[in-house]
Amino acid sequence: MKHFKLTNIVLVFFLAFLMASNGYSQSIEITPSYGYQFGTKLNYGPNYLKMKDSDQFGVTLGYETYDDMMIEISYIHQGTELRIRDNQIAPIESRVSDLAVDWIQIGSTRYFTNDNIKPFFGAGLGVAIFSPKNENYDVVNRALNSSTEFAFSFKTGVNIMFSEHVGLNLQGNLMFPVQWGGFYVSGGSGGVSSGASVSSTTIIGGFSGGLVFRN
Fold it and tell me: Would the pTM count as exceeding 0.85?
């Protein structure tokens, strides 16, 4: 329920931006993409929780408000694994669960030229939804809960336009969940369980490519 409420807030803000900029609209861009997302590691003492590298796919809808300035809403999905190494319960790195991560962001992108080759920089704010599944019950003692965290992001790259309406998008991104983790670790039969907070801000980088469709 929590992540549905936060997602609705993101969508309401985006619609408000659209209405506020209605008099200046020029173009709409749709950019489906596919790429590679690096993992991250959360240390606690000599131990760690780890999110593995994985592929990612997503789509961005952009709405031009002024020349070379877009406001955007983007969605990125990452399917990965949550792993642990803990001196008491998993001395050798072990799989905890599969992990789906869904990023929903609103933000803006600035193009630096209006030529066929268009370098850009952008930033966004929204939520990251972490959804564990297929838990390893040799490590955990119950199903792990999903969590929704506020997140922000930065991206930079280039659009190479083959025509006025179709082009190639190449970009790198940095994703910052404000808090990541949300598990506690105990020894013996306790295992890893959802509830207490082993969490921190972290940086998750990646890169992607896709097509740009512009009206």
Answer: no
- List Cβ neighbours of 137 (8 Å cut-off, separation of 6 or more): none
DSSP 13-67: HHHHHHHHTGGG---EEEEEEEEEE--EEEEETTEEEEE--EEEEEEEEEEEEET
Domain count, the chain: 1
Tens-digit pLDDT profile for residues 94-151: 998 999 999 999 999 999 988 899 999 999 999 999 999 998 988 887 788 888 889 9
Q: Are 210 and 32 in contact (CB under 8 A)?
A: yes
CATH number, position 176: 2.40.160.20
Range of the domain at 152: 2-214
Q: Angle at Cα 104 formed by Cα 102 and Cα 108, nearest 5°?
A: 145
Q: Find the DSSP H helices in the chain.
A: 2-20
